[in-house]
Amino acid sequence: MPLRPGRPVLHRHFTRDTLVWAPLTRVVSDDEQGTRLWLATGSPVIRQVNEDGQGPRGMPFERWIAEPKKIIHDVYRGPSTLKFHPRGAAYSVWWLFDPELRFRAWYVNLEEPGITWDDGAVAGVDLTDQDLDMWIWPDRRWGWKDEDEFEERLAHPDSYWVSDPDAVWAQGHAIVPVIEAGEWPFDGTWTDFRPPDEWTIPEPVTEGWDRPRERA
């Protein structure tokens, strides 16, 4: 069954079967086109850190994989974001907004296709982020993001969750003509999105967030 608009859902990111990041979002729509989620600044987030409270980007990957880790419940401090998962696609497209909800940029997140689940009291979308990403500015200028991080992690195949880097690069390159032509979804659609006034920050999920990863 489609997820109901307005419903809080966990946007769970995994490395293989280990949960590493899960902000709480609200469903904008869920239909044959795909799933749209709204992530508001200040929303609850569950994330993996080391014993000092640092995430993986605060250190070399070799150190990160050797460190003891724990899960904490925190607050999302990034920009409010509209996230669109095209049905079955190995990427999502994000619309990034400033604090006044003015559109600032698109972001393409290369990832394994998201899988939706619904346990009744808790629901979510599960995926693995493949690290390589793309920035797209309103004038359709674009650039790669985190390519150095991607290459660094590929040097540790026993620990890294991306097994086919060529497929990740190919997916990114396949999107470039769409960006440069200003075709949907880079045609201005949803850049004026505003969440309904009644959408407050969801309450944290305290049970069911750690259920096993959903797979196709």
β-strand amount: 35-45%
* Cα gyration radius (Å): 17 Å
Quickly name the level 1 CATH class: Mainly Beta
Number of helices, where a helix is a run of at least 4 consecutive DSSP H or I residues? 3
Ends apart, CA distance between termini: 15 Å
Tell the overall outline. Answer: globular
Query: How much helix is in the residues?
Result: 10-25%
Integer tally of domains: 1
Number of strands: 12
What would the average pLDDT be, to the nearest integer?
A: 97
Textual characterization of the structure:
- The longest helix has 16 residues, at 165-180.
- The protein is built from 3 helices and 12 strands; from the N terminus they run ββββαββββββββαα.
- Strands 1, 2, 3, 4, 5, 6, 7, 8, 9, 10, 11 and 12 form a 12-stranded mixed sheet that branches.
- The model has no long low-confidence stretch (mean pLDDT 97).
- It has one domain (8-180): Beta Barrel (FomD barrel-like fold), CATH 2.40.380.
- The chain is mostly beta strands.
- Helix content is 14%, strand content 39%.
